[in-house]
Design brief:
Elements lengths: L1 H19 L3 E3 L11 E3 L2 E3 L8 E9 L20 E3 L7 E7 L4 E9 L9 E4 H7 L7 E10 L8 E3 L9 E3 L5 E2 L20 E2 L19 E3 L8 E8 L2 H10 L7 E7 L2 E11 L2 H13 L6 E4 L1
Parallel strand pairs: 4-8, 5-7, 11-14
Antiparallel strand pairs: 1-10, 2-3, 4-9, 5-8, 6-7, 6-9, 7-14, 12-13, 15-17, 15-18, 16-17
């Protein structure tokens, strides 16, 4: 009997050690998907192919709570991988994310949906946040640009979910040109404001015939020029008629003084209603909550 107890204790000890060992799991078969329109907390999102996607906003990151769980396209989330979550881009998609506060820029593979926290445009992995230099702060003002369609994961490819990836390489940014881009709202997004980027540095395009946009992100960190200043704006709506913009501003007067400004979109004037600028994310978040509380679910934060 005593010998049986010793054997049982020994087996339990072995099983305990096994449960503490690093988990090795397949990256997951994954699929390429665009997805159907969906509603989260009263806001409709419209996934679509968007090769001209170029937006500014606030990024956040996610880590331990989701590590090893399935992503929206069927892969497994690895907080040490160079991945991200986005609400509307196809999965997987390669994007370039640039931290506008320090100039750090990396390529990431979007394979999940989110973030659904108000005022965030992208959720990056823990490792990506570290490389971009905002893991400690939790958020950063960023620019997100489409680079190409990502490769679907090979179901035979296994990855240690707790293994560290190769240390990043740092290279100098080859360009210093400046451009501003104005984008139309997602199809079907009634009353949503068009996303307008700030005047920010534009990376050099890939050479003709190159499939660089299909390459897996390798952790290379480039340096982009840092804008002299950036402001956070809560953008509520955009209209072709000034009278409609003025009417919306008046209806929001009880929560603050909204500004109406004109931009040109596809050669036509558009009148946007915004609050700001704000210097810190928390202040922009507070105003966004107030605007959404007033019934403007399409409001969002932009960096300009």
């Amino acid at each position: 009997m005593k010998r049986w107890r010793i054997a049982t204790i020994g087996l339990a000890f072995v099983l305990a050690l096994a449960s503490c060992a690093p988990r090795v799991a397949e990256r997951g078969p994954g699929t390429y998907k665009v997805g159907n329109p969906y509603n989260i907390a009263g806001v409709w999102y419209y996934p679509k192919e968007d090769p001209v996607y170029d937006e500014t906003g606030v990024a956040s990151w996610y880590g331990e709570d989701f590590h090893g769980k399935q992503t929206a396209n069927g892969e497994l989330y690895n907080m040490q991988a160079l991945t991200a979550a986005h609400r509307t881009l196809p999965l997987p998609t390669i994007v370039r994310v640039t931290n506008l506060e320090n100039g750090r820029s990396i390529r990431l593979r979007v394979n999940d949906r989110g973030p659904y926290a108000r005022g965030r445009i992208i959720d990056v992995s823990k490792r990506a946040a570290d490389l971009l230099g905002f893991k400690q702060n939790g958020t950063a003002r960023v620019r997100v640009q489409y680079e190409g369609r990502g490769k679907v994961a090979d179901p035979a490819q296994s990855a240690d979910l707790d293994a560290a990836h190769v240390a990043p390489r740092t290279a100098a940014a080859p360009v210093t040109s400046v451009a501003a881009t104005e984008l139309a709202p997602p199809p079907g997004a009634s009353g949503a404001a068009p996303r307008v980027t700030a005047t920010l540095p534009t990376p050099a395009p890939a050479q003709a015939g190159s499939d660089a946009a299909w390459d897996e992100p390798d952790g290379t960190v480039t340096r982009q020029p840092v804008p002299a200043s950036t402001g956070l704006w809560v953008q509520v709506g955009s209209f072709t008629l000034r009278s409609n913009a003025d009417r919306l501003s008046a209806s929001l007067s009880r929560i603050g003084a909204a500004q109406t400004s004109m931009v040109t979109l596809n050669g036509k004037p558009m009148y946007r209603v915004r609050f700001g600028p704000f210097n810190v994310v928390e202040d922009a978040d507070t105003m966004l909550d107030r605007v959404i509380g007033a019934g403007q679910n399409g409001a969002h934060i932009v960096v300009e």
